[in-house]
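Exercise: predict the structure of this protein bound to NAP.
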Amino acid sequence: MKSRILGNNGLEVSELGLGCMGLTFAYGPAVTGKDGIELIRSAYESGITFFDTAEAYSQGGNETLLGKAVAPFRDKVIIATKFGFLNGDALTGVDSRPENIRKVAENSLKYLNTDYIDLFYQHRVDPKIPMEDVAGTIQDLMKEGKIKHWGLSEAGVESIRKAHAIQPVAALQSEYSMFFREPEKEILPLLEELGIGFVPFSPLGRGFLTGAITEDTKFTEGDFRNSLPKFSEENRKANLALVELLKTIAAEKNATAAQIALAWLLAQKSFIAPIPGTTKIHRLQENIGATKVYLTTEDLAKIEIALSKIEIVGARYPQHLQDKVGK
Ligand SMILES: NC(=O)c1ccc[n+]([C@@H]2O[C@H](COP(=O)([O-])OP(=O)(O)OC[C@H]3O[C@@H](n4cnc5c(N)ncnc54)[C@H](OP(=O)(O)O)[C@@H]3O)[C@@H](O)[C@H]2O)c1
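Solution:
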């Protein structure tokens, strides 16, 4: 697999990463430790060197799984994790007080069973804590060798500029896919200007863009998608037009809808490295196949026209979570 560089300080990652969240959190029951380790190792054997986790994914449980899985080849991979939710709970408040950043870093090192974090993201901007204090704490952790690079997630333009001016930011991780194109307006041009990498999360639209979800799909109890307006039955039905488009392009390119969704992201900018997640090895292999799908300028122009005719219905987050993004 080819690699890409995130930011101006040489952070090299495989062009596709693996989002580990769903292995233990957000989309139904956790996989067994054995299956999770097998999946992560299969990703590595297939060329993936970029693994995404967070304190907030099962409060250390996800990091522990990842740490165990990559232990035999720890120095060959890039581990990205995140701090900044109150008590490590993504559904409550935010907490980027310096003492909390430090505590989360120490816990992550312990859970991941490593002495350094390659990429440490602020999961959400904390409006109560000046960016100077956040970046200053990161700088201290860097001096101590505990963190190699840092990033932000779902941050707004002002926060990105401020953070980057104090300590160069390697990557922004925010939602981006054919299902949610908001970052194209202000964020992507800003990252290009500043030389910051972009890591699209939910690049498969939380599974929607793969064609595996229809209006009849019933998510299990506790599946995060039950709370997302975009995933109401009615909105899913309306948004299936996008999936139909993906299936049409996929048939033309001898690929799958998921592969087209990922290939499209990779084709947008050279500093983009998406992190699709899956709990299934055959889907992992399918997603990796996206790196072999080449969309020509002509294909991309055709897709652009088709996309402009499709209206995506429904908010991506309920209001209390929407209030935390773009700060
Ligand atoms: N920074 C943030 O705030 C934030 C927020 C959300 C996510 N993330 C990160 O981004 C990563 C990826 O995002 P995500 O997991 O939300 O969404 P995603 O990668 O867009 O989609 C994951 C979903 O798609 C399904 N799927 C994956 N490949 C498939 C395929 N080829 N065919 C059919 N279904 C497929 C998976 O189900 P199966 O498991 O059944 O295959 C899973 O339900 C996460 O793991 C996490 O690390 C970060």
